[in-house]
């Protein structure tokens, strides 16, 4: 599924609000990419082209796809058609601001959220690039200015939903975001680099106002892209209450951290239209959960999975196998644990994508899996050395007997 480019649409809305003329171009894999880019550039004659780099790779250790190659084609087509300044941004770019800039041969990039930084960069370019570049901007030629991560989310505009009425991607669920940031520090995670650690929230009223506008455009299926819909719990409940009161008849999915869920939240989520949750418990072994720095235990996962099942909400489970400390026994324990919950779907991933500035990256250096100067742009994975031969074969064998979703 190709998700709608929600982050890029947020940046476009803020840039329009700042007084610039903006054209948003989505590039689903099914279209003639070069033709669409050339035709749009020739029509619009832009001064600046922003490119959203969402995915660096598909995090698939057995057969990784390096998706930055696609971005390289997009950059090359823009360069061949226009003298405009090219600016990179997006979740994937933000994890690798220096190496992705160098790999794609682009002059400028913005790490983190773009709603404030991109219009500020446009003004800086208009002023002839005088003085220091705005916070968060990476330049090929100068050291970066540290980024500012603390904007009041209610001050940032949300995309105009009519944007999607004619999009090829509009059959997908409409992304909606109520929070940014995650303070939970799982050892492998890149979210704090992308969004920061503190949780920043939109007011529930503002989220529901936007959902109402989108609903009025005819869309009813949504996906909360918040990393942890239930954190903080009181906020999640308040948001659900406001959605219920607005009587929008929505159907939505969310990502839930398997702790800090109580029967009241589950009931509110169900009444507000939640039909599916992703439960990223990742392991069914207590020592491995501690290694991953998860704040929950197996008993909590089971209790929460049962609560959602009883409320008629579908549960997608996730296992991430091969972490530091993983053994054959802990793998078998995790598989049996996940099977025991009779989830609606289970995704089993072998090997953890190693991201820069994470505790996992340090462990991988210590264990001799990567060199200390590897910038990790090309996908590298942590798979505990003693399981390197056995684990992929074990999961392949399991999949052949019992295909997973
Ligand atoms: C929700 C989510 C999903 C959902 C999407 C649902 C939907 N309907 O949108 C689902 C589950 C489908 C999904 C799937 C995948 N995902 Co995902 N997903 C996310 C998540 C949690 C949030 C993304 C989001 O919408 N954020 C909200 C918007 C507002 O933020 P944003 O996009 O970052 O945009 C802001 C900035 O980046 C910036 N910005 C964005 N574009 C631009 C452009 C310019 C020019 C500028 C200046 C700034 C700028 O400004 C924006 C507004 O502030 C992120 C993790 C994260 N915290 O970012 C991972 C993440 C993006 N996913 C990731 C991956 C790998 C995938 C998959 C490949 C997994 C897989 N193996 O299938 C697929 C790919 C799907 C696809 N075809 O693209 C990785 C990408 C990194 C990488 N290794 O490449 C991330 C970062 C998770 C991670 N830490 O590993 N994903
Ligand atoms: S809960 Fe999710 S977003 Fe937060 S640190 Fe852990 S993996 Fe990352």
Write a structural description.
39% of the residues lie in helices and 15% in strands. The strands form four sheets. A six-stranded parallel beta sheet has the order 5-8-9-10-11-12. By secondary structure, it is α/β, with parallel strands linked by helices. It contains 15 helices and 14 strands. The chain has helices at residues 6-17, 33-44, 68-81, 91-95, 97-104, 114-126, 191-195, 204-216, 233-246, 263-272, 286-291, 298-310, 328-340, 359-366, 390-401, and strands at residues 48-52, 85-89, 108-110, 137-139, 174-176, 179-180, 200-201, 221-224, 251-256, 274-282, 314-321, 345-350, 352-353, 381-382. Helix 3 (68-81) links the parallel strand 1 (48-52) and strand 2 (85-89). The two termini are 14 Å apart. The model has no long low-confidence stretch (mean pLDDT 94). The longest helix has 14 residues, at 68-81. The protein folds into two domains: 6-139, 3-Layer(aba) Sandwich (Rossmann fold), CATH 3.40.50; 173-401, pyruvate-formate lyase- activating enzyme (Alpha-Beta Horseshoe). It is globular and about 60 Å long. Bound molecules: cobalamin (B12) and iron/sulfur cluster (SF4). Cobalamin is lined by residues 1-3, 6-8, 10-11, 50-52, 54-60, 87, 89-92, 94, 110, 113-115, 118, 172-173, 175, 177, 190-191, 194-195, 223, 225, 227, 353.
